[in-house]
Design a protein that fits this description.
Subcellular location: Cell membrane
CATH architecture: Up-down Bundle
Strand content: under 5%
Family: Belongs to the sodium:solute symporter (SSF) (TC 2.A.21) family.
CATH class: Mainly Alpha
GO molecular function, one term: symporter activity
Radius of gyration: 22 Å
Low-confidence stretches: 497-515
Structural class: mainly alpha
Shape: globular
Pfam family, one: SSF
Mean pLDDT: 81
Protein name: Na+:solute symporter
Order of helices and strands: HHHHHHHHHHHHHHHHHHHHH
CATH superfamily: Sodium/glucose cotransporter
Number of domains: 1
Helix content: over 70%
CATH topology: Sodium/glucose cotransporter
Distance between the termini: 54 Å
């Protein structure tokens, strides 16, 4: 990188901070901070939903998979995510929106206290927070890895720089700042991704390389839809997991649906995000698939291949733009995760721990939300410095094995609890399925040797799903109160739309959790 690239990067950071400061005036209370007051347009929500699902792991871990296995990286990653979001847009998005518009909650987990009970809500909240600290730590490490390739600064310095900038804008501006910066980041990534595609096509002989390049011996086997550990079983397991994760099980995605004015707008938001997931990763992945023709990575897992190719192919200025694109994805995901975790802590965990938290004023609740955001970012940055330790092994292991494996036990009671089909499954089913799923993760990941990747991923979710459904029939715990809750969030009719947005209900304005 030269001075022009640095100017682009520093300018980007400055714009992100400026957007956060500008968004500050749109945040008057906790509802604004966590759900944009229910006033976010569906198209902005959809772009934000899409962008908050990416990180620099796309350009490191998945770039290594693309370098080694080719189109498998798309078939077993973004394609199942797109399908999962398309399903979730119809099934879960409207219900998540009605949590805010009808129940007047600001955190996705607030409804769990009524749907199950307080212990269940706390178990899911605490385990989800701890998982996200590790997950976001891996994202910081990924972007710092890329930054070290371009600038030579250390891993810890890269983590500090990106974390501090992200912390400023998302702490000041809340979900509005997240969404608006993600819109800008989407535009930047669009320009950077197209620039990289054009550069690769130019080096390989023009547009016809899109269909002729696959005959070259370096890319032998690169057109196989599944390869290596990424088998058909892995694909099916990943599809199932990502349907829950990207439809709301990853709480920051649920917030995007909650932030739209109505259930219908939430569905449109999800459909836009699904479309982007179908199309845009193809543009990003093609240069990675062709990387064996252009570069020889220095890392054994080829996680530096995309960064090396960028340095080799792009002129200064455009190089800086692509580096900004790397940052944009990671900062989008990490800032949205920070906002979601702050919502869960201040609305669900803190009131259960402290009597004072149950009577916070709007000012006190907003201050607590911002302090929690800073604390979460700090903890995740600390974890990032250890992501390559023996406990975590490497970045892609954390993202695939830890997140995919642990997301299921947390998401099953939360997501299926929205559906009346599972009305019989109560607190017992939720807690047992959660605990057994976590045990299944430990057993397959650490208790037994030689367990295949797809088994480690699917076992926790399958265990939780089977027990959640089975216990609902063996020990049904449906009650009139739970049925009434499911009726309110499950059907169309009065209560949807902007009229219900302001959230003047006493529970929301006082900071009290539902129930």
């Amino acid at each position: 990188m030269d001075s022009l690239d640095w100017a682009v990067l520093i300018g980007y950071f400055g714009v992100m901070v400026a957007i956060g400061v500008w968004s500050h005036k749109r945040v008057a209370d906790v509802s604004d901070f966590f759900t944009a007051g229910g006033r976010m347009p569906w198209w902005l929500s959809g772009i934000s939903h899409h962008m908050s699902g990416y990180s620099a792991v796309m350009f490191t871990g998945y770039a290594g998979i693309a370098y080694t296995y080719g189109v498998t990286s798309y078939v077993t990653w973004s394609f199942p995510i797109a399908l999962g979001i398309a399903v979730g847009a119809q099934l879960f998005a409207p219900r998540l929106n009605r949590l805010r518009s009808r129940l007047h909650v600001a955190s996705p987990l607030e409804y769990l206290k009524t749907r199950y009970d307080l212990p269940t809500q706390q178990a899911l909240a605490w385990s989800g927070v701890l998982l996200k600290i590790v997950d976001v730590g891996a994202k910081w490490a990924a972007i710092a890895t890329l930054l070290s390739v371009f600038t030579g600064i250390s891993l810890n310095q890269g983590i500090l720089v990106t974390g501090v900038v992200t912390g400023v804008y998302c702490t000041v501006g809340g979900l509005w700042a997240d969404a608006l910066t993600e819109l800008g980041q989407f535009v930047i990534q669009l320009l950077a991704g197209v620039a990289m595609l054009v550069a690769v096509l130019g080096r390989l002989g023009g547009v016809e390389a899109l269909w002729t390049v696959w005959d070259r011996p370096e890319l032998q086997g690169h057109t196989a839809p599944t390869a290596g550990p990424y088998t058909l079983t892995f694909l099916l397991a990943y599809l199932f997991i990502k349907t829950f994760e990207y439809s709301g099980g990853m709480w920051n995605q649920a917030q995007r649906y909650m932030a739209t004015p109505s259930a219908r707008e939430a569905t449109r938001s999800g459909r836009l995000s699904a479309l982007l997931w179908f199309v845009w990763p193809l543009v990003l992945f093609f240069p990675m698939w062709c990387a064996p023709l252009l570069v020889r990575p220095k890392r054994a897992d080829a996680s530096d291949a995309y960064a090396l190719m960028t340095e080799q192919l792009l002129p200064h200025g455009l190089l800086g733009l692509v580096v900004v694109g790397f940052f944009s994805h990671t900062m989008a995901m990490c800032s949205s995760d920070a906002n979601a975790i702050a919502a869960v802590f201040t609305r669900d965990i803190a009131p259960a721990l402290s009597r004072a938290a149950r009577s916070w004023t709007q000012r006190a609740g907003l201050l607590a939300a911002r302090l929690t955001t800073v604390a979460f970012l700090g903890l995740s940055m600390a974890v990032a410095t250890q992501v390559n330790s023996p406990a975590f092994k490497d970045i892609i292991t954390v993202v695939i094995a830890w997140v995919a494996g642990l997301m299921g036990p947390i998401a099953i009671p939360f997501m299926l609890g929205l559906l009346k089909t599972f009305r019989r499954s109560g607190p017992t089913a939720a807690l047992v399925s959660w605990a057994a799923g976590l045990f299944a993760f430990w057993l397959t990941a650490y208790g037994l040797d030689g367990v295949e990747l797809q088994i480690r991923i699917v076992a926790p979710l399958a265990t939780s799903l089977v027990l959640y459904v089975l216990l609902g029939y063996v020990k049904p715990e449906a009650t009139p109160e739970r049925d009434a809750l499911l009726d309110r969030i499950g059907g169309d009719g009065h209560g949807d739309g902007a009229a219900a947005v302001p959230g003047q209900a006493s529970g929301e304005r006082s900071g009290q959790p539902l129930g």
